[in-house]
Amino acid sequence: MSPSSSAARRSPRSGTFAAVDLGASSGRVVTGHAERGTLRLREVHRFPNRPVRTGGTLHWDVLALYQGVLDGLRAAGRVDSVGLDSWAVDYGLLDADGALLGNPVHYRDARTEGMADRVARSVPPAELYAHTGLQYLPFNTLYQLVAARGSAQLAAARQVLLIPDLLSYWLTGVRGTELTNASTTQLLDPRTRSFSTAVAEAAGVDLSLFAPLREPGDPAGELLPGVREETGLEGPVPVTAVGSHDTASAVAAVPATGDRFAYIATGTWSLAGLELASPVLSEESRTANFTNELGVDGTVRYLRNIMGLWLLQECLRTWEAEGRPQELSALLRAAASCAPLRSVLDAADPRFLPPGGMPERIADACRASGQPVPEGPAQTARCVLDSLALAHRLAVEDAQRLADREVETVHVVGGGVHNELLCQLTADACGLPVVAGPAEAAAVGNLVVQARAHGVIPGDLGLVRALLCDSLPLRTYQPGDGHGSPEEWARAAREIREHR
Q: Composition bias, kind Basic and acidic residues: at what positions (predicted)?
């Protein structure tokens, strides 16, 4: 794609870009200035993402998110392009006038209960996986749309826009469906990189509701005059499609050298796996619950979704509500002093998906499996982190076996980079060095896709990653730091496998 008119006014070797990165608990706007093979980052605005329950349904407050985006763009100042990424699967419905039909429903809402069984009656799970390569998750977009069938909103809908595409539409007036996020709907074939009419017809989903597909790096319109007035930005300001699923952007920002690496994108979720050239659609892959999502430059993100730091976040919320707030750094120091692997859980267990009462649910799970019940916040936190490290190990082991790909290094990116104990435990559990960073990986990947599309940095993903290695602070954790022996980790991993 040729540089935008605003970018052309500057040297093609430099440019400033704005990444809008929306996570499940907060959003941020980060600017990146690329020049002479370096990338300098600046977070200009951060805002909360607080779901709201009304009428018994859990919703995203999408208008508050949009206002946060506008505030962030105002704080960013002059930029050559804007890109948006967010969590996956959720969407907004537009009517014939292009107006939003109600707040988007949160993926943790209970409306999708039983929907997988309903879909399986028309598309058996093995057939569904053979067409889409997506792991079973109860909230995939397919199940959400089936749950909405018969509702007044869906009947009135003329368009479905995934969350980052909805916000991009409000900024530009242009509608599209970005490919990496579309690949999480369980309606897209990762081999053809297009929607599966066979799955949609069998499940009763109208694919004409989706806007045309677009790839990372494609133009996605320009900021509308009203948006420029609201943000103080001088036009024209192009919006560039990026890996709009935040994990796609995060994996693009993995500062790897070579291809013998695994990645773990950490945050509310842990997404652990490999970057491949083609999907793995075997029955063994399906039963191991691995997903094939599309990435930047035609890659496949072959990974497993793990409950992630959600477990600890929910514990912190519960303790605060009970009048026992915990300061995180002090809690992690105390957890580091606890006995390793005293009690561990299967961090992929769906019982931990809903919000509320997490410490007691963890205690119940330990009790039911005959393990010691954690005594107090420090032991609970250690149980969570040991369990996440084990889940990371199992995902990395399984991915290597199923994809026939050996790895030498594990890259941890995302918010979990700040959790030094989790990084060290992951190195110990995997028996491999862990390279941690960048923390704002989704924003970094968002920025480099924009900079590349506008001709400011080299186009090859390997060269982009080399630039990131030189530009970003990274830390390496070596296995064997005293948090359990290799034999103890192997035994704990076997026990988790046996109880799945």
A: 484-500
Separation CA 136–CA 120 (nearest Å): 11
Q: Distance between CA 493 and CA 397 in Å, rounded? A: 10
Mean pLDDT on 451-471: 91
DSSP E strands: which ranges in 364-467? 409-414, 434-436
Span(s) in the chain for CATH 3.30.420.40: 7-244, 248-437+474-500
**Which residue matches tokens 């393990």?**
371
CA dist., res. 160 & res. 211, Å (int): 7
Cα–Cα distance measured from residue 497 to residue 381, given in angstroms and rounded to the nearest whole number: 22
CA–CA distance, 316 with 322 (Å, rounded to integer): 10
Neighbours of 464 (CB within 10 A): 24
pLDDT in tens, 377-422: 999 999 999 999 999 999 999 999 999 999 999 999 999 999 999 9
Give Cβ neighbours of residue 163 (< 8 Å, ≥ 6 apart).
Answer: 22, 60, 62, 86, 87, 90, 91, 92, 104
Return the amino acid letter for 327: E
Superfamily of the domain at 7-244: ATPase, nucleotide binding domain (3.30.420.40)
Q: Per residue in 155-190, pLDDT tens?
A: 999 999 999 999 999 999 999 999 999 999 999 999
User: Percent of the chain scored above 70 by pLDDT?
Assistant: 98
Q: Which residue in 80, 90, 246, 346 is the catalytic one?
A: 246
- Is residue 246 among the annotated active site residues? yes
Whether the per-residue pLDDT at 459 is higher than 90: the answer is: no
d(CA 233, CA 224): 10
* SS3 category, 105: strand
Q: For 248-437+474-500, which CATH class?
A: alpha beta
